[in-house]
Amino acid sequence: MPSLVQAHDRVKAVEWTPSYVEHQPRYPTRYKLPRKTKDPFRTLVREYLTMEQEKDDRQYGGFEDVLSRTARSSDADLGWLEGLKLALPIVVYAEYGAEKCQSMLVDTVDNAELRAGYLAQAMDERRHLNQQMYLLRHFAKNAADPAGFDRGMKVRGDNIFARAGRVCFDNFYVNDPIECAISLQVIGETAYTNPLFVALTQVAALNGDHATPGVFLSIQSDEARHMANGYATLATVLSEPDNLPMLQQDFDRSFWKQHVFLDPLISVLFDYFGRGKMNKCYYKLWEEWVADDWVGNYIGTLEPFGLQVPKYFGEAAERLKWSGHTAAMVAAASWPLHYWRWPSMTPQHMEWMENQYPGWYDIYGQFWEAFSCLEDPSMEMIPLQGLSQRPFFCRTCALPCVFPKIDESTERVRQYNGRNHAFCSNACEEIFCQQPERYEATILWDELWDGTSLEEFVVTRDLLRADGKTLIAQPHTRDDSHMWTVDDVARLNFEITDPIKDVKDAPELVKQPDGTLVLKTDELVGTGA
């Protein structure tokens, strides 16, 4: 009987590429990778599968034997469960992208040690995807208001924020496989896994939701291995000095594209759907887990090898304090477009916001008070109609250009290749200019639905309840309040428009010899660029 080490070495020696044919990677990489490195995952696949099977048995057994029988999910806070209608379909897509990333790496990376880790992680990601789909099914059967839990997977491509989430998580499997691994393992799973799976687990439990913590903690128990995979990938790439310049650029770009969507999303889930029950807000947890732990400790250990803190980290930290609140305000203002209900803010919740974010009330307090006044259909108005101008959508991140605050945004409009393109930030504009061919053809939400009435959008996107008249989305979660119907929406006479098409004479971007873009200046005009 061979020892565990011998058996492990034998598994690695089998490899997956036949010797009688030359392997041609379907996903080529620009990086140089040595064939022999340290093994990040010294567990045989046979043992790994047994361990994961036991975890699944405990989780699914708990669901069926306890939760369904006692119907505890029907007792959870209604506002928190509405947040899960938004979050779960987005996270499921992230798991799908993560699984595809591992398959690409297995095909590309000619290194047995790394590939053993990628194989196990691919099975992890499929398992997580199934767990979260099961959670959606559980709430669709047991939540007090299940409408929307069955719709998120179907309509996420038509929703403003779920569509931006898809753009964010496309970075897990679109582009160079090593850049995808950095985006997933080094940033998504190392910097943001605690805010997503640990913090939200605590919020769920405080809101009486006993189903989500079991799933999220089971998933979180696999993330340490994924972090080890990411560190091993990063260390392998850094062992070749020629890789460093493009690694730094990929690292900078990947961090911003994760931050720009994930931080507002988690902040909204934590601070608004969490109902102010935590003793710390998301901004304070981000300072501990992302700024101190990830940047200070994890990235700090790699600085001797030349890797620097992401270029856009300072810009991200600067706008983080208010970006979640601005995202919540825009999402609530556009509530009929979604597949979840928005809970009104109680005086206690508003006081918690002001204590956690001093100055919050002066910026956002009046909006939430007005939001409560407009929850009755007899007012014949939604908050979106009160905006003096519809926001543009960012060509790079696909989010509305409203950050960090709606009246102090860093948006800018450029013209390139005969079209106007808006950007929410300096970072998104720079990323677009680095790879314009990747983003310029993106069809944004307002471009897709330009000229569509709100009534037509709600009906054709199947955002109605079983009676065929009542909207899934509502501006409240109370049972005793009037529920908006499609007839109420029709009376608003509201039309979706794409405001950027009317912008004239935006500054022009021009292509340079290396394929990147730069803002056209008088000097460039003289050179004919």
Task: Record keyword descriptors for this entry.
529 residues, mainly alpha, two-stranded antiparallel sheet, 20 helices, 57% helix, globular
Outline the secondary-structure elements:
Layout (H helix, E strand, L loop, with lengths): L3 H11 L30 H26 L7 H31 L3 H31 L9 H4 L4 H10 L7 H15 L1 H14 L5 H27 L5 H30 L8 H18 L13 H21 L13 H10 L3 H14 L38 E5 L2 E5 L2 H9 L1 H4 L5 H4 L5 H7 L25 H7 L16 E3 L5 E3 L2 H6 L2
Antiparallel strand pairs: 1-2, 3-4
Helix pairs in contact: 2-4, 3-4, 3-6, 3-7, 4-9, 6-10, 7-9, 7-10, 8-9, 10-12, 12-14, 18-19
Please characterize this protein's 3D structure.
This protein is mainly alpha-helical and 529 residues long. The chain has helices spanning 4-14, 45-70, 78-108, 112-142, 152-155, 160-169, 177-191, 193-206, 212-238, 244-273, 282-299, 313-333, 347-356, 360-373, 426-434, 436-439, 445-448, 454-460, 486-492, 522-527, and strands spanning 412-416, 419-423, 509-511, 517-519. The chain is globular. Strand 3 and strand 4 form a beta hairpin. The strands form 2 sheets. The protein has a two-stranded antiparallel sheet with strand order 1-2. A two-stranded antiparallel sheet has the order 3-4. The mean pLDDT is 89. The chain is built from 20 helices and 4 strands.
